[in-house]
Amino acid sequence: MKNIITYGTFDLFHIGHLNLLKRLSEMGQLTVAVSTDEFNEGKGKKTIIPFDQRIEIVRGCRYVHQAIPECSWEQKIKDIQTYDIDTFVIGDDWQGKFDFLKEYCEVVYLPRTEGISTTQLKKALSAFSSINKEEFMRAFEILEMLKADLN
Description:
Elements: E1 3-8, H1 15-27, E2 29-35, H2 37-42, H3 51-59, E3 66-70, H4 75-82, E4 87-91, E5 106-110, H5 118-129, H6 133-150
Parallel strand pairs: 1-2, 1-4, 2-3, 4-5
């Protein structure tokens, strides 16, 4: 059985994450490196779910053999060697960025799940949170009136 590794933040765990982990587990035994909050901050990323919860969510997924912290860009070669990795897999939005790992293992870039991403979810939450409470409540009142008219 092949040993597979992937890396990610896994914030706001969604169906795209689940699809990825399922596909990877079909390729072999899956190790997932979850980016720490500190590493994300260094990349200019802000997470909603804290690292300790994100890694536990990933560990709880039946497709994952083990989850480890990702603390730096540089750890990938060491992880490949430490965990006897045969295949490094990442989303195709990183196409070509990790080709240097081909010296150590197979590198695969997979297409992402269409129509869902953490970035999209965060944008939707941001737009939702910027709505004025009174306007929001008025919209619900209008919807209730429409519902009553339709009944």
